[in-house]
Amino acid sequence: MKGKVLFLVAGAAGYVLGARAGRERYEQISSAASRAWGNPKVQSTVSDLEGKATDAAKQAGAKAQEKVTATAGSVAGSVRSKVNGGGEDVEEPLGEQHHTRMPTD
């Protein structure tokens, strides 16, 4: 994300500078930016950072999933406890279910 923002800022700065200095200067700036971006060292760094960002996102996703699962289990246990009147967790239905029909027009 940071790389995208940096790229957009650099592009905007290049555009403004190019517009002020004329088309020729804009082409010089654009060419220099393209050379810099195409530099194998820069691309290697970008590739490394993309890999690290992907790994960090996967780890964060796994941690979030664990927390959601734990929280959901805790909430479900709390609800079961309250529904059962504080007794044991029972996986049985709550008794006879009544369905109310809504009047139709």
Q: How would you describe the overall organization of this protein?
A:
This protein is mainly α and 105 residues long. It has a domain at 2-68. Helix content is 76%, strand content 0%. The chain is built from 3 helices and no strands. Helix 1 runs antiparallel to helix 2. It starts with a helix and ends in a 22-residue tail after the last helix. The model has no long low-confidence stretch (mean pLDDT 80).
SSE topology:
Layout: H1 2-21, H2 23-38, H3 40-83
Order of helices and strands: HHH
- Based on CA inertia axes, which overall geometry fits? elongated
Helical content, roughly?
Answer: over 70%
Name the poorly predicted regions: none
Strand content: under 5%
How does the helix and strand content classify structurally?
A: mainly alpha
- How many individual helices? 3
Radius of gyration: 30 Å
Brief digest:
The chain is mostly helical. Helix content is 76%, strand content 0%.
List keywords for this structure.
105 residues; mainly alpha
